[in-house]
Design brief:
- The chain is mainly β and 304 residues long.
- It has no helices and 20 strands.
- The strands form 5 sheets. A 4-stranded antiparallel beta sheet has the order 1-20-19-18, with no helix packed on it. The chain has a 4-stranded antiparallel beta sheet with strand order 2-3-4-5, with no helix packed on it.
- The protein is globular and about 45 Å long.
Length: 304
């Protein structure tokens, strides 16, 4: 197996009414030394998610500090993030740091849906909403629902984005078709959509979420969550590669990580975040209950 599990890093502590359960979508941002500020989406009693954080030493595997309140709270009724905030990754553009997120909505009498919002990560590490309107809204290209953007800045200064888009809520096998598409930008703010990036297959991999991308000498590498369909299917972590970041090949059998035989990640694994630290490739990810059981760490032990 290419990924060696290093164990459970963080378990949500019910530190605040808005962070009662879950630590989903871990986003590590380097703080100092071996310590990362790990933002995550926690939930309240009504299942609405807000953003909290803990400072974690990724070498020692210890929690150095846990913040006792959310740093960003979901919106009021009627806003595009009224029922939750699920964070993507952090990137710099124009001298500012941004975190894009999936804003959840649960309209009365209708299916839930998502649109993409934008947060500023300030120098004091606080989070502020960029605009009351979506950063990326539903449109003719993506008319149903949007999710989990990941942004990468290329060496030539251009930006690439991979994000989730729903084609249908039910493909006939009790599962949605939610695919990963691409977009490009010159400034990290205005985006041109480039269409489907990752192929999908009904009954094999048709519900994708939260892509995370690493670029090295071998090309582009993407890890993501996926479900095959069926009313009992649960998330697994998948893998794909690309030479240029446009055309991707699914390599699900080469993901190198799967559920454990018992414990906190024995039912599902999902929402990976892959990053490099001191020459090692690390993955933070969630386990059972969509992040309810906490955040774990895995270390890459494969070819580079």
């Amino acid at each position: 197996m290419a990924w060696e599990k290093a164990g459970l890093l963080y378990v949500p502590q019910s530190a605040h009414p808005k962070l009662t359960t879950h630590a989903s979508n871990p986003l590590p941002v380097w703080l100092h030394g071996d310590v990362y500020r790990v933002y995550f989406s926690g939930r309240d009693e009504s299942n609405r998610s807000s953003v909290g954080f803990a400072d974690i030493d990724v070498v020692r595997g210890t929690v150095e500090y846990e913040h006792d309140r959310p740093v960003f709270i979901h919106g009021e009724q009627g806003t595009f993030y009224s029922h939750g905030v699920s964070i993507g990754n952090c990137y710099e553009a124009g001298g500012k740091r941004y975190i894009l997120f999936m804003g959840w909505q649960c309209p009365d009498g209708a299916h839930w849906l998502g649109e993409v919002g934008c947060l500023h990560l300030s120098e004091d590490w606080s989070l502020h909403l960029d605009s009351d309107t979506p950063f990326m809204a539903l449109d003719n290209e993506d008319p149903v629902s949007l999710s989990y953007p990941w942004v990468h800045r290329k060496q030539d200064g251009m930006y690439r984005m991979w994000y989730g888009s729903t084609k249908t809520w039910d493909a006939g096998n009790d599962e949605m078709v939610h695919i990963i598409k691409g977009a490009s930008s010159q400034d990290g703010r205005a985006w041109h959509k480039t269409g489907t990036a990752l192929p999908f297959a009904l009954g094999v991999a048709q519900a994708f979420s939260r892509p995370t991308v690493i670029v090295d000498d071998l090309g582009y590498h993407m890890w993501f969550s996926y479900r095959p369909g069926g009313n009992k299917s649960t998330y697994r972590i998948g893998y794909a590669t690309s030479e240029d970041g446009d055309a991707w090949t699914l390599r699900l059998d080469e993901a190198g990580i799967d559920v454990s035989t018992s414990g906190w990640d024995s039912e599902m694994i999902e929402y990976p975040y892959v990053f490099e630290h001191q020459g090692r490739r690390l993955m933070m990810y969630n386990g059972n209950g969509y992040g309810k059981s906490g955040i774990g760490l895995a270390v890459y032990d494969g070819p580079r």
